[in-house]
What does this fold into?
Amino acid sequence: MKELLWLIPAWPLAGALILILGGHRMSRTLATLVGAGSVGLSALITLLIGFAFLSAPEPFDQHLWTWMAIGNFQPSFAFHLDALSMIFLFVITFVGFLIHIYSSEFMAGDEGFARFFAYLNLFVCSMLILVLADNLLLLYLGWEGVGLCSYLLIGFWYQEEKNGYAARKAFIVTRVGDTAMAIGLFILFQTFGTLHIQSLLQQAPQAWSVGDQTALLVGFLLLGGAVGKSAQLPLQTWLPDAMAGPSPVSALIHAATMVTAGVYLIARTHVIFELAPQAQLAVGIVGAVTLLLAGFSALTQNDLKRVLAYSTISQIGYMFLALGVGAWSAAIFHFMIHAFFKALLFLGAGAIILVLHHEHDMFKMGGLRHKLPVIYGTFLIGAASLAAIPLVTGGFYSKDQILWLAWAGERGNVLLYLAALFGAFITSVYTFRMVFVTFFGAEHSHVSHPVGKAMLTPLVVLAVLSTLAGFLELPHTLGHVTIFSDFLSPVLPAVNVRPDAESMELLFQVIAAVVALSGVGLAYYLYVLKPDLPSKIKEEIPGLHHLWFVGWGFDALYDTLLVRPFVYIAKVNKHDVLDKFYTGLVTVAEFFHRALAYTQSGMMRWYVMGIVIGAILMLTIGLIL
Amino acid sequence: MILPALIIFLLAGGILAWSAEKINASYPKWIALAVLAIYLVVMGSLWSAENTTALTGGSWKVHFMKPWIPQFGVSFHLALDGLSLLMLLLTFFLGMAAVLISWKEIQNRVGFFYFNMLWVLAGISGVFLAMDLFLFYFFWEMMLIPMYFLIGIWGHENRRYAAYKFFIFTQASGLLMLLAVLGMYFVHGATAGEYTFDYFAWLGTPLSTQTGRWLMLGFLAAFIVKLPVVPFHSWLPDAHAEAPTAGSVILAGLLLKTGAYGLIRFVVPLFPEASHYFAPVLMGLGVLGILYGAILAFAQTDIKRLVAYTSVSHMGFVMLGVFAFNEVAMKGVVMQMITHGISTGALFILAGVLYERIHTRDINHMGGFWPQVPFMGTMGLVFAMASLGLPGLGNFVAEILTLLGAWQANHTLTILATVGLVAATAYSLRIVQKIFLGKPEHHYTLPDLSGREKLILVPLVVAIVWLGLFPQAVMQQVDQPAKAGTAQTQVTTSGLLVNQHVKGGEHDPK
It folds into this structure.
């Protein structure tokens, strides 16, 4: 059964090719059938392989063909299936399939219907290659492939100039990170002569001792790639703008899958980070700082999708934090739960925006819980998971694990813990601010049409998943289920809890629960009980509010430091200053040409005078010498 | 006999095309197309030929030698190995594309146009085959004159200026090479006692440090102007922008590659010591080209100038890779020569296709074309992605291998070159944005690609994807181990470098 592995990325690729080549001649039904069907088939095969994998959980390698062969350096089109890639496969194909279904209704009125599905299929294929690749070069192919699709889909409505700008920004900013990653690959190749991931992971501990300088450098460079793709500090600026794309795109690419590629990369190469403790600590710090900064920004946004975008940055910050303290499995667990609930929230938001005539500002919504009950219900479940409402949500279990290990893990650290805890409070405030403003209070706008089944069904399924999936991993104090971490344990080592901390777990859970609930309480107080208060607070601190609103001014900073100087230099030098040298030569030559031609006047007097002066000069020189 | 026949029939085809114009104006293009198609097939049949002829420095699939001016040691010496074969296939493949793209564009003096085109291609083929330096110089100059006519007669508004500039730059640098060729002739003659222009005789000639360096610089001058390397690049944007589409395709796709070929075939093997000595500077110039070309490309508003500067940028990788002296980088360079020829050729073809429809090259007068020309847009997207080095397309293989290899030689320069990839993203996306995306503010009626245009572009897309996914087939061509035993065991063409590199001795970059 595992031999069918190659089909998982092949189906969406075939779908993309069919839609690119023949999409314009297809009916919408047929295009949907190809687009969603191909991903559905992948999901089905993933399921089959998943069962086979559960019964025989040893890694499986599939070699398709040798990409290039230079001596012993032979990167291939070859896949490596293990528990880590299995989980990513599940999330990508299933969430991907649900989002394809949703899109068939969401995009129904769009003239680029087939093109949309073509890009979406291509994305799924690239993402699958990314997580299946057995060598870093093929991973890089998937990595850049998802970047391309992200670019194409952010700029899907290409007639708007600002969409194109957002798309290019996303591509270029992530490419900055990719450059760092590429240099990391150069070093790995020079050191080990291979880019095969499993070989690297085996050889690295032999070649490097803990704290080795090269390992450290590689760690930081890989982190560079990860922060670009996963929109972490300092390369997070592209993600909020990426919301210019259609909502299903935000759900699939900019919440559930692509933006977590950085998490995957670090988890995949965790051996290197274990050998480079400073780099790993940097991962944790990046995560902690990002989750706070993005959380504050999320508090101030009015655009429903931008709240979710900042929230995504913040939640991936949690995953980075988990990676930074060596809680590998907790990071992946949070990735999975986050994929479910964040996709759910984006799809819900998309549905709302669609039926409100593309209104994004949530302060112009209000009172939607009566008009859109299903969306309200599922959105509430997603929001509860995001805010980590205790016991009943998946998000609680996944985030609680990170909070706990940030403090109690061997590499835990009280500062990281406090950042995460404070972040959890902010999360629940901005999440329920969003819920209350959108669904409660007075109605400000008119719902144009009911939402159909193709859009509602994925919401319901995701709501169920984001709740139930949490029970795959329960803490000691609450049932002690470790299905998820056991599944991952052959790939990712378990984190050890400091012995002195073990007894405190319940206390920390109560703290986390109280923090989450008090955040909801604060949001209720501010946006339901005293709806005038927030704007007063805003007037009290206009500077800070603005700073948060614009995402801490990173855009302006990069604009001043990098973008404008580059554009300026390019503009000034449009005509290539080096060419001036050659045109200068021509000018000099022409000058002498003209000067000498001028002496050839045809007038006898001038010639005679010339001869006389010349003769006198010669004689004088002759006499002097 | 296949090698001299190749060149002779190209020349004869040119004359035939010119004279056939008198009978019917549409004959010349058919003749040109047929000649090139035949040769594409003939060369293709050599694909799996084994390297049977062993000569110093490598082994060769096909070899031909006849004395030409025996008094001076000049012979008509041609040889074909994997590298030459790849270059010739590229020549005929792009040559056919160039003929097809001129099908309607060229209405004036048609016969003479195709005559020039075939003669340029004959010169290029000669350059890729000549193993006698006198003959090499002869072909090198032979490329120049027909190209001068192609630009000067059928070009755009400023064609005279561009043609002169092209001619003077190439000619001046070519003369330096001639001096170096003659210098080498006498130096080799004095030491070996036998005066000859033969490449294989020249290999391994002991040279004093100073002589070697001066002679190398002479050769280098011709090749780095042709490649081009900043700061000798400024003929290129003018020539590329002003040439007719076919001219731009041949210039970018093939003429630039003769410079790269010269570096690989002549500069490094003949002057290993000097090459190692100058390597850091030359790699540095390569990186300068990558970055400087990219910044210039970003600023351009003339689509053809833009693409021209991207060539400057991409050819920087050739310098970086050749002087990194290792096999990985070398393979990257060979891939770069081929993939850049295809992707940039395709971008010039798209520029030509657009020009035929809207009669401007100014991207500020374009925008929002996608809904009208989705097929063309898709093509544009593919080649823009190739140009920014998207994995899955051939250019990625070329650039990543070059960088992986260059890293072993010089870290700082490789980092800077890698930064160039970000700049490449900026200008490539700008192409797509400015032409195809945005609001359609200028009211043109644009028909999408015609059947003939698809016939040109679709094979180019297939080729670039194929090279991206299965580059091994091509790269194998340059590392078939020698079948017949030579003094050096396991000599490979790219191993040519590796062996010479051993001779470079203490300059080992590792």
